[in-house]
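Morning F.,

Quick status update on the modeling queue. The single chain you submitted on Monday has been processed. Sequence for confirmation:
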Amino acid sequence: KKKLSPIEASNCVKQFVQLGYLVHVKKHSRLTSKGGTYILGARLLLELESWLKSNLDADICRVCSRPVVVSVECLTKNCNCCFHKYCVEKKGKCLDCKQPLKMEGVASKR
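C-alpha cells below.
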C-alpha cells in the first residue's frame, strides 16, 4: 500500500480546494497567515447528496428536502424541524408550528 508523502498530500488538498470539494477557512484575516481549517465545499455536498441522505443521520431541510450541515432549528418543544438558513431567512418562522426561529448564532450540529 503506497502512502502519500506530505508534499503529495498537500497538493491533493490544494486540488480539492481548487475543485470546490473543500474550502479553506483562514484563522486570521491576513492572507499571508498560515493555518486555519478546511470545511466541506458546496461541490462535495451536492455530489454526495444522495449518499448523505441514505448513509448518514443528516437532518433534512423542511423547505428544500436536502441534507443540512449547518441548520436553523425550531426551538419549540416537540417541533423537530430544521432548515437551511437561506431557506427560511425571509420568513423567519417555522413552517410547521409558525413560531419565530432563532436566526442569529447558527452553529453546526455536532
